[in-house]
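Protein modeling request. Please complete all fields; requests missing the sequence field cannot be processed.
Requester role: graduate student
Desired output: 3D structure, token encoding
Chains: 1
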Amino acid sequence: MVIPWPSPDDHFWTADPDGPEPPQEDTRLAAAVARRLGGDPAVRHEPVTVSVQNRVVILTGIVADPRARRIAGELAWTVTDVVDVCNALRLAEPRRPRR
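Delivered output (99 residues):
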């Protein structure tokens, strides 16, 4: 079996290292989710990254507690036109006392 490999002469080849621009709808949804998270005191100061692909919200970052993680996911679901939420937020490691 031979798997086709695109050549630079193919019509879909792009030299843009950043890839194509995200669809406008995804950009709008990412901004709406970020506004929603920024308006809630439980997650406002948490370092959450919001990205959207095909109307699926992806939350990444490290949050302080499970409650903030849960609330961030629930808030993302409340935004109109979101079809799924991938809550990939991780919990911060507890600090160990110095010896």
